[in-house]
Amino acid sequence: MRHIIFGGDGFVGRHLAPKLLADGQEVVVADIAKSDLAHYRSVRHVPTDVTDPASVAAVGIKPDDMVYNLSAKMLSPLQVRTKRHEFFYPVNYDGTKHIIEAMDKAGAPKLVHYTTDMIYGHTLTYPMTEEHPVAPLGEYGMSKWETEQLAHQWRERGMRISLFRPRLIIGPGRLGILEKLFKLIDWNLPVPMIGSGRNPYQFISVFDCAEAARLAWLGGVPNEAYNLGSLNPPPVRKLLGDLIRHAGSKSILIPTPGWAVKRTLDLLDLMNMPIMDPEQYLIADEECVLDVSKGKRDLGWVPQYRDEDMLIAAYTEYRAKKEGRSGSPAHVPAE
Questions:
Q1: Could you tell me the domains of the chain?
Q2: Is residue 287 predicted with pLDDT exceeding 80?
Q3: How does residue 220 score in pLDDT terms, banded at 50, 70 and 90?
Q4: What's the half-sphere exposure (Cβ side, CA atoms, 13 Å) at 284?
Q5: I want to staple 295 with a disulfide (CB 3.0 to 4.6 A). Which of 21, 116, 226, 300 is the partner?
Q6: Average pLDDT, integer, range 105-120
Q7: Cβ(45)–Cβ(34) under 8 Å?
Q8: Which string of DSSP letters, residue by residue, matches 239-289?
Q9: DSSP code for 93
């Protein structure tokens, strides 16, 4: 079978492609970028801009193809409030629409599509199952929720679309917002927490995300949505404290009144001077943990990586990069 990965040169795609190759599958990466990755010796790359329907059509989807949409604009780099819609929607929503329409014209019905847990907004039930109410807090979450609504419409027309809602994905090659944290720790500066730090914080490994996409294909592409997150996430205070000790830093954790910090960040955001995205800080002190048991029941998917190990591996990579050392990202458990 041929597998077409839109956004396949990106974070999850560069780990999914080798998995599919190892299964003896033919893989096509459709992406605007092409990195210097070893698996391109066995993978065909098609330059593709998902914001352009003609570019998507030129990929040449066939009826029997398995399609994955991993293309997305993320919360990093940080965007000012007035530019968020124009930043997120052309890729996240329009790109998804172009891919599905090209699949429809080709008669290809099977799609694995990544959205985000940020469609849920504030935590109303704990842990959060896939039936949790949906109320995105910003343009990123809303752009992803609208692609899920699009998927529902196409399911009614006969498509099979598996939706994945990951927590913050970390792994080799992607630091994002964590780089700010690591700098504070390196400089032995205080590390402020939004709230007391007693609430858990949940990551998901890029390796676990790639395996979920593979299992959805092997499982017949169920018309379902699945949360992706780690098991038993620790409290923020323990997660960060363990990292500080590992780094040998003199940094201390500073709890703050969550409501006051959020209102301050709201004001900065209103002034187009954000230092965090509202979709991140508004839920930072909530019991925001995804229930991932549905993926195990339906697909046999069980996350393999612990939050503590992922964060320390990310810091180790950050230090290696800073010191000019090359790591071995293919072998570290997660960023």
A1: 2-173+203-229+289-305 (3.40.50.720)
A2: yes
A3: very high
A4: 23
A5: 226
A6: 98
A7: yes
A8: HHHHHHHHHT----EEEE-HHHHHHHHHHHHHTT--SS-HHHHTTTTS---
A9: I
